[in-house]
Amino acid sequence: MTLPTNSIQDIHRSVREWIAQGLGAPPWRVRLGDEIPLSDKERPVAYVELTAPARTLDARATAPQGAIERLAPFTVSAYPVMGAEPRLSRMEADVIADVLGKLLDSGVAVAKAPASPAHIPIFDWQAIPLVGDAAERKLPPTAEPYTWARIPLGSSVQTIKDPMDPKRYTVGLVFTVRWSAPGAEGAIGGESLGVAGAYEVPTP
Amino acid sequence: MGYVEEGDIAEMFREEPVDELCDRLLRRGGDFLLERVRYYTPVQHVDDAVEGLGGSTRAPGTLQRSWKIRFSDDSTDVLTLEVWTDDPIAEYVEWDTRPHEIRPKADRGEASIVASGKPRAIRADSTRPPSQAELAHDVVGKAALRFVEDGHVVYARVVHHPGTRGAHMMAKAVADLEAEFPKIADEEMQRWADEENSR
After folding, report:
1. With an 8 Å Cβ cutoff, is B147 touching chain A?
2. Within chain B, where are the H helices?
3. Residue A138 and which of A21, A116, B140, B151 are 20 to 30 A apart at CA?
4. How far is it, in rounded angstroms, from Cα B77 to Cα A141?
């Protein structure tokens, strides 16, 4: 059995799945930031982008021996449906901004992982293709997270009006994710994070 | 046997040095954040030839220079810092923009001129009645976009803009601060402790 490695791909795709569940997909289509952009007519759509390369920090004192702490900033750009008039578009954008804010406050259940405030369940995506049929790319509903990432600091939600079309809005969300990973030499005890089915719901 | 004393810990030592330390930590963090936001803010490099064509109405680096910082005043117990700008283009540089069409707008003089130097065109659906000069040149509904590409002035009736990737300068800077703050704080606390000991 191959143990999950807390890879950045797992983190990125798990964050994407978390945002998708929070926004409600469908009708929302939530994509990774480096996927081919959809046209503006295909709203509602959102992109989850790894804003900067993940970096390694000193581990927290409570982390397993040899574990490292990693940090990565994420940006979500959500493009809600356009209303028939600017006022309706603004209202829709405000609703989405509220949904994203509450998502960080309360969390959302993903597959078998329950909702937990400011925590994102991390799944093993190794066997799930990035491209191809939509059904094949989906996380199985029975999937269980092998660890959790934290959002330790505050986040920023912003509603942006298009300067040339008052009916087009973007809702932006910025947050930083932290997680523990086995160190380069392999963490003593860190492997236990990878045992399928064994996870603990984090407390906020 | 034990001894229990309840009380406010602040009464056991002078608060001023601790307040000063908190203030110093905030300012060090703020200075670092401001420096990183400026570092990540893209600067448009416009060469002289293009500038001569009127390709840009903004001086390069305007956004980068516009970032400012403010700290919470002494009237509150909560320490806050804010890096901010009042430059209206900031949010469109920070965030992605979607693929979109750009069309000339009626009554926008700078962007809606025609190559021939004829009077600025107005859109057919404009509520403003065309002037005699506009009627004479038959420019109603023929407004054009003007922009500079590869050193040449280009006119177009419509531009299919592919969208842009956001620079996410604020997001990157905040992540830098989050990663580096323990180190910054350690240094500042050491300096503060040394200064306190030498007093």
Report:
1. no
2. 15-40, 48-52, 62-66, 90-94, 132-137, 169-198
3. A116
4. 47
Minimal CA–CA distance to B178: which of B3, B33, B27? B33
β-pairing verdict for A147-150 and B145-149: unpaired
pLDDT tens, chain B, 199 aa long: 788 777 777 677 777 888 889 889 999 999 999 999 999 999 977 666 555 555 556 788 899 999 999 987 766 777 888 899 999 889 888 888 777 777 665 544 444 444 454 445 555 556 666 666 655 555 555 566 767 677 666 777 677 777 778 899 998 998 899 889 989 999 999 999 998 888 7
Whether the pTM exceeds 0.80: the reply is: no
Phi, psi dihedral angles at B185 (to 5 degrees): -65, -40
Amino acid code (one letter) for B73: D
Q: Hey, what are B161's tokens? A: 């803009």
φ, ψ of residue B140 in degrees (nearest 5): -65, 130
Residues present in chain A in total: 204
- In this structure, what token pair is assigned to residue A174? 């910025």
> Which of A15, A32, A34, A77 best tests the B interface by mutation, with the highest count of B CBs <10 A?
A77
